[in-house]
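Re-run with default settings, no changes from the original entry. Doing this only to confirm the output is reproducible before filing.
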Amino acid sequence: MSFSIFLRLLSVAVVTALMFLSSINAVAAEQRKPNVVVFLSDDQGWGDLSVNGNSNLATPNIDQLAKDGAQFDWFYVCRVCAPTRAEFLTGRFHARGGVRGVSTGQERLNIDEMTIAQTFKAAGYATGAFGKWHNGMQHPYHPNARGFDEYYGFCSGHWGNYFDPVLDHNNKLVRGKGYIIDDFTNHAIQFIEDNKEQPFFCYLPYCTPHSPMQVPESFFEKHDGQELELRHRDPKLEDVQKTRAALAMCENIDWNVGRVLEKLEELNLTDDTIVVYFTDNGPNSYRFNGGMKGRKGSLDEGGVRTACFIKWPGKIAAGTEIHQVSAAIDFLPTLADMAGISVQSVKPLDGMSLKSRLLGKKQDPVERMYFSMKSKTISVRSQKYRLDSAGRLYDIANDIGQHNDIAQQHPEQVAKMKKAASSFLEEVSDQLTPDDRPFTVGHSLNTPLPARDGVAHGNVKRSARAPNCSYFTNWTSETDKISWDIEVAESGTYEAIAYYTCPKNDVGSTVQLSFNGESITTKIDQPHDPPAYGRERDYSPRGSESEVKKFKPLSLGQFKLKKGRGELALTASDIPGDQVMEVRYIWLNRVDK
């Protein structure tokens, strides 16, 4: 064989091999399941985006996400945070899963509910959540027990300080670095980098623009003293300074969304990733919101209609519009359907898959009812109408501001929607009773019991009206008590750690922690008196959020806890000063495993 013939044969072999490898890679790419990134902002209204016509701010990254994918005309969530998160996680109305409120345990999602993370994890996805959880703190309610391999954030409803805050990293307390949203995003980006070779489900439940109204100065500078071009429909209700702070916080969110999108592009993952952006309820103050009635907490359009965008290059055409009334309950069936995986929940879903609409199939909207609730008060949205909680009927497509009650002209429609509401309330009636669930101990090696979940007795009071990030103070008498209603999953030996403060002049009290006949006693012999902080960074006066302190851990000792339910009680004697101590947490850590 001549050398030239050999070279031609070698060339053919190389080309053939390269074509074979290319085909293998193409098949592998086709078979790889899409990654999923979900952004959820907190207290950001439909109108807090420039893509929705707000010229008071610029959100170019979110705007581009909307333009490159699908925009939802009529997308609905709940009136407050925790219920929306539960509906996203389960594909079911929040009332079915036991979520009754936003604090003191009422925010917990029943442990027999399967989450979207469990569905994606069962399909081989790496799963991570970075931000505000708000559906339970103690295992088995904790995100690490609900399908998320990695968790970094806080489990409460709100936080008192957004700079270098104390956070939860896989059920351990850590100190965050920098501004909280930037920090969450840093960890999410690292998670994406670590899992770039396998499909991942990355959930970013941000905690802004929820108060306290804190944001890096570089973002607020633009809005400091800003004259607002667009105002709330009733301008005299608007707190302009709070609006300015909210706009700056929304622009910070947009910057962080851009950082994640840039990382996906850098890793060549853009085309393989479904990106979702939505918000959890209406705006947390009176500001521009497209003329809609109501704000956060309201059952009207402005309280529950929010922005939603989904991008998937090559699958969802740019400029797609979804006219179907849709909601957070639809994410689980939709994302599982688009990923080609099986939903793990054995309970019936309230949500429906929107895959065919998103991928371009022409379909007329189907008639469905979406229920917005506040306890047993309910408002109903159909494809055309809203029946509000007072029985007024509005043609929303033609009356977004709910100005004209047309109930008398459409009595049959009113009757139909009232009947649907009554039937739904009957279905969930067993979950609308007062919450009697104890706080769970012993399902993990470390169990936090924050002041939020405790009860103050006697002179003891909270550091702020809202329980979420509060601590107990004013513990001045031997008849005072702090208690938690707990249920121990497994008998064992636990070390109790109190996170406390105590001025030097108050050192010396004897404290006792007891549960079902077992107790430990210790003396406070070390002062720890850090200042409260957080308020100095607020750009608008805070409402119910507590300031924070740098609490110090104090071992109360070890004692045996027997399996069962009872009162965990913290009491004191021999009080030499004005108070015993301030208490942020009790941690019960298993030591015999």
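Residues 3-31 form the longest helix (29 residues). The first strand starts at residue 35 and ends at 42.
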